Amino acid sequence: MTPRQATSGTDSTDSTGGAGRVAGVDAPGGAEPAAAGPARPGRPARLPGLLRAVLRRLVGAVAVMFGAATLAFAALQLIPGDPVATLLGPATTTSPEVRQMIRHQLGYDQPVAVQYLHYLGGLLRGDLGQSYQLQRPVTDLIAEQLGPTVQLALSAVLLALLLAVLSAVATAGRPPALRALTSVWELIAVSTPSYWLGLVLLTAFSFQLHLFPVAGADGVAALVLPAVTLALPLAGTLAQVLREGLEAALGQPFAVTVRARGVGRATLVARHALRHAAVPLVTLTGWLTGSLLGGTVLVESVFGRPGVGSLVLSAVNSRDVPVVIGVVLLSALLFVVISAVVDLLYTVLDPRLDPRLGSR
């Protein structure tokens, strides 16, 4: 070995540092040490995926609310008629000067772009405007009527889920005759109009049997018939989706393995198959819950219940546009919140759908 080669070898060894020399000693048989691969990302490395999912959800929520607010403002501008005349009522006779003063106070004499900016600024402050007919803030009116509607909607969704799970679990994988019989009532429930079903239940259980009150929202008894009216069509749809999911899950290899271990059908469905089949059920439940506000309009009218449905029906009849727009924005907000809750439930039911795993 020449002196130049020895010097070069010494320099290359020193340039690797102490870690290189230790690795060279520890390597068995003088073999070269294996190159260190990239470290596996731990839990902190998942945060970018979670942050991206949260930011994507926030951007989507802002876009939905902005679109709903813009469409509501456009509808307000395109509706024929003078809002001041609607505000004063058809029987009121006022001079043009007074009407112009009211129009100036409400900002209707300003350009549309300026009105739109003031409108968005009010929404950011939580100001939905003033009711034409009741002369009260729309936010207060919706807040007063939101409680009974939420109570009715949640009761209907819970009852629908209970009926759907019982029906699907009892008939999934069973003989075709039993499944066909169950599908008949589901089809009838889905195709029955809610207002007609409400009238039938009201006639039978309130007027004839006197088991439930005819109208009002006082107590649990007054909630039973409206909740059943809303729940039966939902239950029919949810049961069909859940049954298909259960039958698909029961045919998977994991179900065969669980049966081979001697596990009974009830345990297999409750602990394994139901969780696999619940993802499409959660999706459909979220969508139906968000659209349930339209169903409460008819049901609250049939049973004489207070709520957002009755409020928006009265506003439509009296052309109280700010109230209608406020309810539209409330519906958009509900869809955004429900979508976020559904995404969270996805990760609980199936951890593979966790957005934090996207960076792995």
From TrEMBL:
Transmembrane domains' residue ranges: 58-79, 152-172, 184-207, 219-242, 281-303, 323-346
Membrane disposition: Multi-pass membrane protein
Region (Disordered): 1-43
Annotated compartments: Cell membrane
GO MF terms held by the record: dipeptide transmembrane transporter activity
Residue span(s) of domain ABC transmembrane type-1: 146-346
UniProtKB keywords: Cell membrane, Membrane, Transmembrane, Transmembrane helix, Transport
Name assigned to this protein: Peptide/nickel transport system permease protein
